[in-house]
Specification:
The structure is a homodimer of 390-residue chains. Chain A is an alpha/beta fold. Chain A is 43% helix and 15% strand. Chain A has helices spanning 23-29, 39-56, 70-81, 95-106, 124-133, 155-164, 183-186, 212-219, 232-239, 251-267, 269-289, 316-327, 354-370, 377-387; strands at residues 12-14, 62-66, 87-92, 110-115, 138-142, 144-145, 150-151, 167-171, 190-192, 206-210, 305-309, 329-333, 342-346. In chain A, helix 5 runs parallel beside helix 6 (155-164), helix 11 (269-289) packs parallel to helix 13 and helix 12 packs across helix 13 (354-370).
Chain lengths: 390, 390
């Protein structure tokens, strides 16, 4: 009656996450389960914190992984930083920016939204205007919008927030570990990510970092933090030196996360960013040489998640179904406002590889041919190869 | 630079959880990571729901595992069932009953507490009095108080709640899969547990079940559910037939949970309860024959978690340290009001075994001897053996 391996198929994961993981991370998953209050486990947790500080590029003491998926990290940041009546400026240009807005409203913050076009970043001019018009406590920004494949330029927003003394809450779900991200240099007050994308671990944990100022603000709220599970002042007591029991930390997932962080350290953060960028550029070159079109302009493209427009007349769901059935290949559908209009191709962590780029080009070319949509695979492959120095 | 196996020691886990897991569950952890929207994965999630319905003994459609540790299940039940101003009766006779109270207060429910003695269950007479004095929406009860080792008799409370039309929110963290639990027969409206105790999976997931009445109430609240992450109406859309994306479900943990549930089905629920009871009785017989004392009276003892009083003059932390260092054996310390006064010995899931009972008696006898506290191990072992038919 055991789990039938045939029911757990071996996919090639090239959607918006989760991603394929390194064999060493699989091995780490089978480390013996250990107690959450074991002195040996505290050393593991400390190493996880240390590794995450390196990828967040921060000295923040409160840097760890909340016990849930990426969305638990989002909720931790929102629920701790916002309380009823707080003035919040939400930059929304995709599904996840809007999810933050929804969470902020559930905290009864007073939310002003800068609505942006899906597929473009938020314009700093609009942030400047908003900051002039009102005093905000927090601005929420999505660094890497997983629904659109847009990388938000940070410099102007960072300067404006500093100038106006506004706290920055940043979504780094699809950037942490794959794209340059400087939590301290940017003066981030709260940022969250997930374990299963550029970090290269299975889903189930959400890396987070909180500035000292954010932790202090959480300690001095007028209203209690509504989430007990994600209360950063309680989590800090468990993660920090006092080691007060809070929840039964999943050693299984934290061992895997640590192994993934050690792999990042071995590769080197800059080398990793370059690998993600190179494979992204090769994929885009191939896709465009084949006559397909990217959603996002070159200067705002996220190297980790590529959004390709569905050509007119093509049944996009049929393409995804064909790829899954024929090649065990998962790619992502459009989400929210982009449903039916784009495919989302993830090249993150272990999955950002030359073989995945070339495999994808061949597979999509075939999937489109089945629907009588002709692409020039030779041209696509050659364009990709030239950027891969192959 | 890989994770050093020496840093991930192989313990024998006999604390309050996590527990050792079956080799088949370790194997399931290394099932290939799969996408959270993959049709093949939806079949796995459906099987997880089916398996959990069997251990909860319920037909509740909304029966699944929230994406976090047991405390995420507690927060899901509290945050969905309670809104500001709701009248809530909280039965508190231990650390976890009090944690529910704290969560309820963060939801701004009007909480009345029945404070009970730690080590005894809540008296139904007090519930009857409270129900006469006030109209409550929800009563919160801890079926198996992990901090004290008390099993709450349910019959009277169940009748009273039915009579007064009060919803029951039940903590089954240390009972689900190890002790009789009849969600439908008892008319539970919300119950939660964890993956790592009697269920036999690593930590990271929280089995939950919600009655149709509870889901309906969550849909018709006056105030939005404060947690987006644990909003049962959103989770239901992902777990249910509409399959709307909500969070990136951890296939790793859900494969492991499914394998653990299949092991339960193979053993048979009643056989499993009997095994937990037999090993508990043997442990208690051994402990008492050795001259040690249990905290809880026989009629209220939880078969899954045994609280032993620390004998006078014994340094309890030194005993735990010795067991961990010498035998790699983890047992639990007292929590909250019982800190320093008891040890907590878990016999749950795969860890509820004859060998663990006998190993523990030998090890604790030695640990006490080091502190010049003499126990009669021969008598203890013989008493245990006689109940194990050995």
């Amino acid at each position: 009656m055991a789990l039938n391996p045939a029911e757990a198929p071996l996919r090639k994961l090239m959607g918006p996450g989760p991603m394929d993981i390194h064999p060493r991370v699989y091995r780490a998953l089978t480390s013996p389960v250990i107690g959450h209050m074991d002195p040996a486990y505290f050393k593991i947790l400390d190493q996880v914190g240390e590794g995450l500080r390196k990828v967040f590029q921060t000295q923040n003491r409160v840097t760890h992984a909340t016990p849930g998926t990426g969305t638990s990290g989002m909720e931790a940041c929102v629920a701790n930083l916002m309380e009823p009546g707080d003035q919040v400026l939400a930059c929304v240009h995709g599904y996840f920016g809007d999810r933050i807005r929804q969470m902020a409203e559930r905290q009864e913050a007073e939310v002003t939204v800068i609505e942006g076009e899906w597929g473009k970043p938020t314009e700093p001019e609009k942030v400047a205007e908003a900051f002039k018009a009102n005093a905000y406590k927090v601005i929420t920004v999505v660094h890497a919008e997983t629904s659109t494949g847009v990388l938000q330029p940070m410099d102007d927003i960072v300067s404006l927030a500093k100038e106006h003394g506004v706290m920055i809450l940043l979504d780094t779900v699809t950037s942490l570990g794959g794209v340059e991200l400087k939590a301290d240099e940017w003066g981030l007050d709260a940022a969250y990510s997930c374990s299963q994308k550029c970090i290269g671990c299975p889903p189930g944990l959400a890396p987070v970092t909180f500035s000292d100022r954010a932790v202090e603000a959480a300690r001095n709220r007028k209203h209690p933090i509504r989430s007990w599970y994600l209360d950063i002042t309680l989590l800090d007591q468990y993660w920090g030196s006092t080691r007060v029991y809070h929840h039964t930390s999943s050693s299984t997932l934290n061992y895997a996360l640590l192994e993934a962080l050690l792999l990042i350290e071995e590769e080197g953060l800059q080398n990793r960013f370059e690998r993600h960028l190179r494979n992204h550029q090769a994929l885009v070159a191939g896709v465009e040489a084949m006559g397909l079109e990217m959603l996002v302009k070159p200067e705002h493209r996220l190297p980790t998640l590529n959004t390709i427009r569905v050509p007119e007349g093509v049944d996009e769901a049929k393409v995804r179904g064909y790829l899954l059935e024929t090649f065990n290949l998962e790619i992502g559908a459009g989400l929210g406002a982009l449903a039916g209009q784009v495919w989302r191709i993830g090249l993150m962590g272990y999955s950002s590889s030359v073989e995945n780029v070339l495999f994808f080009l061949s597979a999509i070319s075939r999937a489109l041919a089945i629907q009588d949509y002709k692409t020039d695979l030779s041209a696509g492959s050659e364009a990709a190869m030239s950027l891969l120095n192959a």
